[in-house]
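Q: Make up one entry.
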Amino acid sequence: MKQNYLFGRKASRHSKFPLYSTLVLLLCCQALFSQLTIPAGNGYTFLDARPLSVDYTFERTASIYTAAEMGIAPGSTITGIRYYLESTTFTSITPIKVYLSNTSGTSYFSMIYSNVVPSSQPQYSGTLPSSTFVAGRWIYIPFTTPFTYTGNNVQVLVETNAGNGPTESSVSKQFRWSPGPNNSTQNWSTWQTTFNNNQYGIPESGRPNIQLFYTTAGAAGNVSFDNTVFTASENTTAAIVVNRNGGSTGAVSVNYATSTGTATPGVDYTAASGTLTWADGDMAPKTINIPINADFVLDNAETVNLTLSNPVGTTIANGSTATLTITDVLPPMQGTYTVGIGGDYPSLTNAGGIFQQINTRIAGVSGPLTINIISDLTGETGNIELNEIAGGHPVLIQPFGSARTITGALSTTTNLGLIRFNGTDNVTINGSLAGASVASCQIGGDASIRQLTIVNNSVGTTAGILFQSAMSGAYNNTVKNVNVVGYSPGYGYGIMYRVFPHSGSVPSLVNNQNSRVENCSVKKVLTGIYSSGSTTSNPSTGLIITQNDISAMGTDRVSKNAVLIANETNPQVTFNKV
């Protein structure tokens, strides 16, 4: 298979790089792949969400690439296509179809869609998982129906069919486009529940950048690195892909080897060398696996040199060298972290917040965590929950320096909890600046040591603080010395412990055990404190609800249930003021 890189531009919904950025991108493209770049000497690069977006319910993007631009021998079989994703902030599963057709045309006028779509079967029809979309990489779509090229121009038509309304914004996925011949692309898009095949498209003088993979009968083809820049994190294995391109006749082979860049073999990675072999008719990509060691030391990205040599029965295309960059892995988390203005993290539950960091830290958590809230937090969205921590290390969340307020509203009420824990064990939220506990036997507790307030401004059935069992249960979780305020007495919960996932037909086998709510104030909700086990035959145990104040009146009242308990064995509910 030979790779051709064809460049186009879109006139709307794009951002234009400044000239210095454009030149850098162009040079990078030519360095990555030394084969045909179209148009030659292109000096501008643009970004657009199409063709693999689901910004709209339905999108269609048709582009024409000329025979002169491609340089493919007639009779060749095109077996796949790739698009370059320049940047991404969010991706969802993308249901797509890809059609190729031979054409003598070079441009479009505004046409209805049914006059553009080929009558033949699509080359690809399926879904691309969100994990496919990695910024700075080519996205490969292998054709299930290979396409026979006749020597004409080629039209590439891509359909995306989310079918349930927009799920991404126009900047969630930014594909690389570049200037092209006049009206070389036409697009259609709609948010309607069905797509109108009689809808007229919009011609544009630009096209998305593509790579075409193909094979020519009787040719041995060449071999090349899939890319000349690879990345891998510490404590993983780097997968270096080498392709056979342009033909499959005869057996071919090539040697490979790593060599020292700025990374040290035996310390940062395990050196690798050997021979890759393709049998007659074999065009499957081959993978070189390079184990990357973990040093858990903060250092700069380090590099490994990769080389192909001694080709037998073939040639090396696109250069014989590539670079593997080893990205740093942060050390495991333990100790004290600050959240708020000027802190280690800006939020608890938002993207870039500490919950996300704990969940995704490759090295994990190695000891107890203390999370100090050093300023009021506003704009919490509840988007990211704190998941179960391997090893069950305890987590303490507390105000620091002064009384603090955490305020927010859920971006989607399906998350249910503003501050949410999913199967997490050994969590304590202690609102006392001194880490105090209330003196015993005080009805309604002690308001003076409630120095953390959580305000849930979400409308609907949501909770200010939510612990849920997940698949392995949530044990030993405590909320103490906290004020919890809801949106309205007609909505939601203050503090909630629930078994989830769970249904009446498939009861969960796990529960929340040893849950505790102590010296908290709950206002402006439908239900103040809620705790439920799985079933009467599989109840939760160890629940303690003590010395809480749920007695507010008027617009601050808890309108229905001060405390609601189900499927619990011997709960202790004492000294609460309701």
